């Protein structure tokens, strides 16, 4: 999954059709796991090899009725589907790009099951098509690309929908400094559907496009500075613009955080993801981090250790162990 650093929302076709846009995102070590196999028990066994107590589990019997596998079959040109099991420690609607991560893992696992080894950029492109074109969800491209590539990525979207992804080591270094000094991630009770929130946004005009791209550049510079106070100011400005442009993105918890006093140590914040629910990114005053944590704990939020993952899509392929059905194959992502 990922946190969106700058330019979130401009990865939608509604924005980049007016001209190139740039989104900066960083991958987290929070994942969606997909296991596919010829038999249901084998798919579930492949998912549970680590014995993880999944917060979200979609067993093979239910996956047949889930829209995503059928959409994946369309983009991959598959005439049939194997058994599919899905697990994650994070529930859907978290704001961390879980549906994009799910789509990436699903496309990769099904491609490998069908005998194809596709490169990460191709997986990302197909995962976006799965959600946007086949399922008709109002989503952007950054989630799929961040999930497929990992690390901190600078993603440039052209009017024709093509993407150029450039790793940003400078941002990784800056994020490490910020995490050490007061950049915090908290889980917010409840979840929201990003597609529904984005579908209520006003029509994007060339003026909106220019303002959004300028704001993205400003926020990226703030994070690259590695200065938590500068980041806090940028996050405050970002959130004000976001809810002014689309009031549906507002959230009761953000209104409560916005009421924090200077002594509470909250320099700035934003909800992660277009859905505006699930997780909130906090810039805390380094001298008052403990005060900020106490304030956020008092609101009923849960602290989530923040770390950037350099690894994107991770795949395995196995055959049945001796004594089991020969030719029974399992692909996991």
Please, could you describe this protein's structure?
With 333 residues, the protein is an alpha+beta fold. It contains 13 helices and 13 strands. It has helices at residues 13-16, 40-47, 60-63, 67-76, 98-113, 120-134, 142-149, 169-181, 194-199, 206-225, 228-245, 252-258, 289-298; strands at residues 2-6, 21-27, 32-37, 56-58, 83-88, 152-157, 163-167, 183-187, 266-271, 279-284, 302-304, 316-319, 329-332. It has a five-stranded antiparallel sheet with strand order 4-5-3-13-12, sandwiched between helices. A hairpin with a 5-residue loop joins strand 6 and strand 7. Helix 5 (98-113) crosses helix 6 (120-134) and helix 10 packs antiparallel against helix 11 (228-245). The longest helix is centred in the middle third of the chain and has 20 residues, at 206-225. It is globular. It starts with a strand and ends with a strand.
Q: How many β-strands, per DSSP?
A: 13
Average per-residue pLDDT, rounded, comes to 88
Helix percentage range: 40-55%
Any idea what the radius of gyration is? 20 Å
Oligomeric category = single chain
N- to C-terminal separation? 13 Å
Shape: globular
Instruction: Tell me the number of helical segments per DSSP (H or I, 4 or more residues long).
Output: 13
Largest sheet strand order: 4-5-3-13-12
Output the helix-strand order: EHEEHEHHEHHHEEHEHHHHEEHEEE
Strand count, sense and barrel status of the largest sheet are: 5 strands, antiparallel
Which spans of ≥5 residues are poorly predicted at pLDDT below 50? 321-327
How much of the sequence is in beta strands? 15-25%
Q: What structural class do you assign from the helix and strand content?
A: alpha+beta
